[in-house]
Amino acid sequence: MVLGWTKHGDGKHLAPGEVVRPDERLTWPRMVGFGAQHVIAMFGATFVFPLVMGLDPNVAVMMSGVATILFLLIVKGKIPSYLGTSASFVGGVYAVRAFAGGDTAGADAIVTGAILVAGLVLALVGVAIHVLGVQIIHRIFPPVVTGAVVMLIGFGLAFVVAGTYWPQDQWMALITMVVTFLVMVVFKGFIGRVAVLVGLVLGFVLSWVLDRTAGPITSVLPGQNLRDAAGAVCPKEGTYCVATAFPHDRVNLGTVDSAPWFGIPNFHAPDIRTSAVLLVLPAVIALVAENIGHVKAVGEMTRADVDPYVGRAVVADGVATVVASAVGGSPTTTYAENIGVMAATRVYSTAAYYIAAVIAILFGLCPKFGALVAATPGGVLGGVTVILYGMIGLLGAKIWIENRVDFADPVNMVPTGAGIILAIGPVTHVIAGEFVLQGIALGTIVVVAGYHLLRAIAGRTLRPAEGSATG
Model confidence over 313-371: pLDDT tens digits? Predict the structure, then answer.
């Protein structure tokens, strides 16, 4: 059932052990409340990651609602899930901006063009999974490879924290990080699950207070106060024209005052460039693994056989990413945060997700809200992203542990270690002219190609029984 829900019991109460199934609902006022919870759960990452990637958070939030509705329709309402902004593309996007001109409208178009193509590839992978079965993915991307790609995507972003965000306000970055730590540990319930959002809001408020009590901070802001070697003003950031430190407020609310309360977000068309596409394609591997894991988690909670819908879920995520990026939005993925909300509430109704999607679309139609989000200080983002990137990286280790990957085997250890170092560097490898592979893209190629090459040389055959133990 895609639309239309049966009322569960009296619509007001859940007996011990009972759950609200995807095709059921409680009373509509209660469902609105559950939908609002899903919005809060996805909100932190869905607007933090567009900021990190230099994309419009208003467009991202709005299109996350559109993406969620598309997802629910494509999976025929069988898999309750929310699609928010994907973190897996951050490293690739950062690399694209490095050669596309930084934080400019032209670079924005190239970034979303690359993401759009990645979405198409993801959708095609989903079709293959639907036709051939989920085991085809396990053969091409066994746990050792999937874990390595997820890890290098997270740890490969360390240079962004160290070189871009943390230096803008090191003490605020440290305070934001510590506050987020404490909220995650001290609060075990819903507040603990949105600790990143809480830390970001508190960091934002404290930065605003410091502007009025301690005065401006002197630090480097990317793309601002550009100077050459002689100290003269120069027009475009590059090798001989760099951003230099200057006094500035931590929080600039100038654009918030001028932004209207209601309006269409700043959509833009994508610009597809092959060199940019190659830099973001590694994220597809992480998204496939992420989608499969989330779908299976939902299946376990709802006690339903979701294997026939795994391919559909991957297709839906790919289609949603294409639609979102076609208008300047961010890449999408299913969200573990919302799965956590379902586990805590035992309400798996897709009605809550449709409500959450509508609320997100309404948020996206408020430019003033988008301007406020865009004013988030770099130091605060530094404190948040150091946690987010680290958590992404450790998810790769979690995949290895759960699948008991054997690193005593050099076929597993050698390409994995090399690929991660290349990503963390980040190492740049010039292929020809302006065509380069670097960081996460280069590391992913080394991991995937290196693993299969060494396995072939070693004369291995991947038997199903070995798939989870040795990769």
Answer: 999 999 999 999 999 888 998 876 677 667 667 788 888 899 999 988 988 888 787 67
CA-based nearest residue to 372, from 57, 113, 43, 28: 57
115 and 325 Cβ atoms separated by less than 8 Å? yes
Cα dihedral 286, 43, 29, 184, rounded to 10, equals 90
Helix 28-53 × helix 195-213 angle, to 10°? 60
Distance CA 427, CA 197 (A): 32
Of 293, 298, 388, 360, give the one whose Cα is nearest residue 37: 360
**Token pair of 386, please?**
């150091």
pTM, two decimals, is 0.66
